[in-house]
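Protein in question filed below.

…
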Amino acid sequence: MSIETCRNLLFKRGPAVLACAASFAFGSLATVILTGAPEPVPTPPSGAGARPVSLLTGLAPLPRAAEKVVKDARLQERAVRRKHDPKPTTASKATISLYESSTSPGVLRRQGCNAAQRGATGVVILDFGKPSYDGRTYGTILFSGAFAGNRDITHAMGAYATGYVRCLPKGSRDRIELARGTSNYHPSVPSVYQAGRRWASEVMNLQRSLRAANFAAHVTAAAADDVEPAWDPSFWRTRDFYRGYADSRVGYALYNYGSLDGGIVSGVWNAHQAFYVTGGMRYARAIPEIYNQTMAQEWAALAQVAKKRYHRPVKFAGVMTERTSANHGVKPTDAHRMLVRQLAVQGHGTAPASVPAAYTNIMSFG
């Protein structure tokens, strides 16, 4: 079963998408062992920029007074963008998040070691696919199409943490937040609410193991959810997963690394629903997909509504991109700049929410 249908990919990322990709053990960290060769990893769906909207033609020229209003508005927008254009004073690297096709400890340990050698710091999301149930235990459908139980996923994340910590240079203070990722794509489980609770429980299990292995100074646990409104137009499945996670009182963030699929005006969900999964639920944080200018505008509009209507900010924790050498997508730093600019422009110079200069780029492991 594919994670994203062609229709959803086109709706989410624009007509530049030409094809869909193929579908997709808890224990002490000290006992993680290298097993087997890595499984082949299919290429997950690639993001692409939306086609620019053409200006309307054939209209009568504007009166001079109207032309001046338009010109002044454009000048003001450019001034706001210049003022709020983030110019980092130090180099900042994007972490690499991954679509996972395996829970093999050897594969995940190598991924973690690679991250340490790159100097990764910040949020790292390991996407294990959509929620599923095999008749005995809750888990997910991996990007290889195989089922993985929750305990196996936790064990795999422990292997990633082991690889990361053991490959850090001596004396390093590098630190990552390792987020257990899933999605709201058609969960095939007896109870989505219970899936959320069990997802939270395994986050806590991982954190306990990190402390027991003295890894907590370099790795902390979190959760993540690729939330796409088009995958759950009714919203209730997504809401139940978030409710289950919140009711567990886990104490660790649940990062929404999804999209808004048209925004909160002409999109699938209303403002209340979109805000709930980006800051309304107490553990919810947003690492939005910013693959083009339109997506930045949609997220900035949600932040503006949240500030005015709910008097609370969208809790941004950075931005996500899906750039590869093949798709030439938006660079992580440019995605961050897009969102910061749009927040300032739509807030008329006062941004309704702040965005940390934190980036992650998601791809397959090869």
